[in-house]
Give the backbone structure.
Amino acid sequence: MSPGRAQGYICSISFIKKIKMKALVYYAPGKKSWEEHAKPVIKEPTDAVVKILKTTICGTDLHIMKGDMPEVAAGRILGHEGVGVIEETGSAVSNFKKGDHVIISCVTSCGKCDYCKKGMYSHCEKGGWILGYMIDGTQAEYVRIPYADNSLYPIPAGSDEEALVMLSDILPTGFECGVLNGQVKPGDTIAIVGAGPVGMAALLTSQFYTPAEIIVIDQDDNRLAVAKTFGATHTINSAKENALIKVMELTDGKGVDTAIEAVGVPPTFELCEEIISAGGHIANIGVHGKSVTLHMEKLWDRNISITTRLVDTVTTPMLFKTVQSKKIEPKKLITHRFKLDQMIEAYDTFEHAAREKALKVLLEN
Ligand SMILES: NC(=O)c1ccc[n+]([C@@H]2O[C@H](COP(=O)([O-])OP(=O)(O)OC[C@H]3O[C@@H](n4cnc5c(N)ncnc54)[C@H](O)[C@@H]3O)[C@@H](O)[C@H]2O)c1
Ligand SMILES: [Zn+2]
Ligand SMILES: [Zn+2]
């Protein structure tokens, strides 16, 4: 090859590197691939392109892979959590510049529409939960973030960025959808059904309000053991014991003041209906792909409330302070660490959480 040709060859490799990246692409239920993909570019002046430093996998990604969300298009890059560094900003982005480290919120919000003005970012007319769902997400080397000024949070130098990945989704989700909607109060007896990362986030953040008893229910003994170390006063393996009988024994037959559903399948929501005390609150967090039976014939006179919520991430700045001051230590939820290009292995580990003793898996670029 002549020197001129060789130089041209090298130039074209570096050009491809500039426009290509690796990403986790969803094709159909059970079908995904870690492959080369076009690198995102700025489309709107309010966009930023962020280079991913750390990302993770969510229970919601598993719902997508199971086929619970058929609205996800083939070819979509999954992922809605992570921290990164700003690569490029659109002309209207004023809060961030190239080189800034940021937390990527799982919810995109314009900050200007009626819903955003009410603090209901999850239903932003131009955003909401779209990342890794309706638009390409964070399980990639780069991601485009619309409305960057409102959808990213700055990371001060010297912060523990692994812990901050938990602020993208699981901490605000457990807190807003579970603890706040469930109206947890001092002295309450609460039950958290599901000890995955989201249930664990509800467990950690419920303790801001000092409930007297926290009963955690799951089918995974390892996760239940971890829940004990995070402050659960009782744990129940519902695959081995009758959870309804056990909860009634623990509560003098009354049931719990708050039942937080953090799984997303009919039996766990129906268990919440059975264990709720008169005047109690059922706070649903789980993403449901199937209808559940609402036993109004038993609940109509029980003075209970049932809430649903897509996380708004409005409490992220408050939760950020509790993580920075180590009032809560969500980093302890990380059980496995991978390089970004071990994405398929990381999915396998998270999909077989009981076998692998996994909670949150962290992927680093
Ligand atoms: N509402 C929101 O905005 C929002 C945001 C994020 C996640 N989510 C949802 O929260 C849920 C939990 O997420 P995660 O990341 O912790 O998921 P995960 O899959 O890691 O955890 C789910 C847990 O439920 C347990 N489980 C499964 N079936 C059970 C049963 N029949 N009885 C008892 N336990 C059972 C599993 O062992 C597991 O520990 C998912 O449905 C996810 O989609 C909702
Ligand atoms: Zn999620
Ligand atoms: Zn909006």
Observations:
- DSSP finds 14 helices and 16 strands in the chain.
- The longest strand covers residues 20-28.
- The pocket of zinc ion (ligand 3) is lined by residues 109-110, 112-113, 115-116, 124-127 (CB under 6 Å).
- The mean pLDDT is 95.
